[in-house]
Specification:
Structural class: alpha/beta
Largest sheet: 16 strands, mixed
Distance between the termini: 68 Å
Radius of gyration: 28 Å
Shape: elongated
Strand order of the largest sheet: 1-2-3-5-7-8-10-12-14-15-18-19-20-21-22-23
Strand content: 15-25%
Number of strands: 23
Length: 491
C-alpha cells in the first residue's frame, strides 16, 4: 500500500484514542475483517486509529466514508483542504465509496472539486453531500456529473444543478435536499418524472422558485416534504397522495391548502389564486409542522377554512400562535362569529408562541375544543407574555370562563407548558387544563432558565391548594421543573 503523505497525516481532528488492552477475541481477529470494519468508519476516525497502531496505519486507503464536512474544515484554509483531498483520492485504493461529504470554498478551484465528485461517483457513491456555501457564486454541476444510478441521497448547498429532462441516472434517488440552490420548475419536474423511488424532498431558501409544482402522483414512496420559504416563492401546488409529513416555514399569506380561486371573499370580490394548493386532503398526511412568523394581516377566514380542511387526517400538528390568531372570532355581517371546524384525528399538538403575538388564552382553548381526541399538548411560550388588552377584558375572558365549564377533554393525558412565568393568564390556562382533562396524568410547568423556583412556604401551600382543588383527575401530577432547581411535585 502507498505510504501516508505528510498532508494526509494532518487529517485527525482530535487526539488519538488511548490504547486498549487486547483481549483474546481482539488478538485473533483476522486482519481482513478489521480492514472491512474500518472501511465503514468515517475517514478521520480511521486515521486516529492508524496513529495508535502501526498495524492499521494505512487502513484509511480502503475507507468508504470520506467525510470532509464543517468539522473537518475548522482551522483549515481552501489550499490545505484541497491538498489533503488530492492526496486522499490519489491514494484511495478501495473499489467502493459509500458517502462523500464536502464543505469547501470552490472559488478558483472548481475543477478540483469536480474531480473529487467524479472520482466518488465512479466508485459507486450512495450519499453525496456538497456544501459550497462559502463561495461567491454557486458551484455549477455538469449534467453528466451526477447521472449515476448508485446515488441514493443527494444534498446540495449553493449549487447550480442542470439535469436533462430525462436523466439516465438518479433512478435510485430516495432523498433530495436543495439549500440556497436555484430550483426552477424544469428541474423539479425532471426529478419527479425520473426519480420514482424518491421518498424525501427538502427545499430550503431556494431561488428561482416562483410557482413550485410537486407532481408526485406516480411516486408511491414519496412521504416527506419540507419547504423553507425563499424570496422568490409565490405559490406551491402539491399532488402527493402518499405524503405523510409536511413541514413549512414561511408566511401564512403564501400558504393556502387546496385553494379554490373561484370562491368569493367577504367583500364580494374573487379570492386571489391559492398560494399553496393540495389536490384534496392527502389521506396519508399525519404529521404537519407550520412555522410562520406574525403578520400584519391575519389569514383570511376563507383561506383558513381551506387550510383546516386539509388537516382532517393529521395526527401530529405543530403550529405557531400566528395560526391560532387566524382562527379567532371575527365579525361577519355585524356579528362576532367563531369558525366551525373539527380535527378529530389530532392526538398531539405543539404550539409555539411568537414573542410579538396577540394570542390570548381564549384562542388556545377555542382551538383545543375543536380537537376532541387530543392526548398530548405542549405549549412553548419562550419569551412570550400574554398581552391581554380590551378585547380580552371585555369579551374573550368571559367567553373563556363560560366555555370552559361544560367542556370535558376525555382523552388528554399529558400537558407541558414551557417558559412558565406564573403570570395570571398562564395560571388561568393551568386551571383550564386541570378542570377539563378528566383523565390527566401529568401537568409539567417548566420555567425559563433565568426564572428560579424560589417558593416561600406560604406560596407553595397556596399553589398546592389551588391546583389540587382545580384538578378533575385525582391521579393528575403537577410538577414544577427548572434546569437549576430540583422539581417540585404536587399530587
Amino acid at each position: 500500500m502507498a505510504g501516508l503523505s505528510s498532508e494526509t497525516q494532518k487529517l485527525p481532528l482530535s487526539p488519538a484514542p488511548k490504547r486498549l488492552k487486547r483481549n483474546r477475541s481482539q488478538k485473533h481477529l483476522p486482519y481482513d475483517v478489521v480492514e472491512i470494519i474500518f472501511s465503514y468508519l468515517p475517514i478521520n476516525k480511521v486515521m486516529q486509529l492508524g496513529t495508535a497502531s502501526m498495524r492499521f496505519r494505512n487502513s484509511w486507503v480502503m475507507n468508504r466514508k470520506l467525510h470532509f464536512d464543517k468539522d473537518f474544515a475548522k482551522g483549515r484554509g481552501p489550499v490545505e483542504i484541497a491538498r489533503i483531498l488530492d492526496n486522499v483520492f490519489r491514494q484511495h485504493s478501495g473499489s467502493k465509496i459509500d458517502s462523500f461529504r464536502l464543505y469547501f470554498n470552490h472559488d478558483s478551484v472548481e475543477s478540483k472539486a469536480e474531480n473529487w465528485i467524479r472520482n466518488s461517483v465512479e466508485k459507486g457513491v450512495e450519499e453525496l453531500d456538497l456544501d459550497f456555501g462559502q463561495g461567491k457564486e454557486p458551484f455549477k454541476i455538469a449534467s453528466d456529473l451526477l447521472d449515476f444510478e448508485s446515488i441514493r441521497v443527494l444534498k446540495l448547498t449553493f449549487c447550480e444543478l442542470n439535469l436533462p429532462l430525462k436523466p439516465k441516472g438518479l433512478c435510485s434517488l430516495s432523498t433530495l435536499v436543495l439549500n440556497k440552490t436555484p430550483a426552477p420548475n424544469g428541474l423539479i419536474q425532471a426529478v419527479f418524472a425520473n426519480c420514482l423511488l424518491l421518498e424525501n424532498l427538502e427545499l430550503r431558501h431556494c431561488t428561482n422558485v416562483y410557482n413550485l409544482k410537486i407532481s408526485a402522483g406516480k411516486l408511491r414512496r414519496f412521504k416527506e416534504l419540507k419547504v423553507v420559504e425563499g424570496n422568490d416563492l409565490a405559490s406551491v401546488h402539491i399532488v402527493a397522495p402518499s405524503l405523510e409529513s409536511f413541514f413549512y416555514r414561511g408566511h401564512f399569506s403564501k400558504l393556502n391548502l387546496y385553494g379554490l380561486p373561484a370562491q368569493l371573499n367577504f367583500n364580494g370580490g374573487p379570492l386571489a389564486p391559492a398560494p399553496l394548493k393540495f389536490n384534496g386532503p392527502p389521506a396519508q398526511l399525519k404529521h404537519v409542522i407550520l412555522c410562520c412568523p406574525p403578520e400584519k394581516i391575519c389569514l383570511g377566514a376563507a383561506r383558513t377554512k381551506i387550510l383546516l380542511s386539509n388537516l382532517v387526517h393529521v395526527t401530529y400538528l405543530t403550529v405557531t400562535s400566528t395560526f391560532l390568531e387566524g382562527l379567532s372570532q371575527k365579525y361577519e355581517n355585524g356579528d362576532l362569529r367563531a369558525m366551525e371546524f373539527s380535527l378529530g384525528n389530532l392526538k398531539e399538538l405543539t404550539l409555539v408562541m411568537a414573542p410579538t403575538s396577540f394570542c390570548n388564552p381564549f384562542d388556545i382553548s377555542s382551538f383545543i375544543r375543536n380537537c376532541p381526541c387530543l392526548e398530548n399538548i405542549v405549549i412553548d411560550m419562550g419569551s412570550f407574555s400574554f398581552r391581554c388588552g380590551y378585547y380580552w377584558e371585555f369579551h374573550a375572558k368571559k367567553k373563556f370562563q363560560e366555555d370552559s365549564r361544560p367542556l370535558k377533554l376525555e382523552f388528554l393525558k399529558y400537558v407541558t407548558l414551557k417558559g412558565f412565568k406564573f403570570e395570571t393568564p398562564e395560571l388561568q390556562l393551568v386551571r383550564f387544563f386541570l378542570e377539563t382533562a378528566i383523565i390527566l396524568e401529568n401537568l409539567d410547568l417548566i420555567t425559563s432558565k433565568n426564572h428560579l423556583l424560589q417558593f416561600g412556604h406560604v406560596d407553595a401551600q397556596v399553589y398546592k391548594h389551588c391546583f389540587l382543588e382545580w384538578r378533575a383527575s385525582p391521579k393528575a401530577k403537577i410538577v414544577f421543573l427548572n434546569e437549576k432547581d430540583s422539581p417540585i411535585q404536587f399530587s
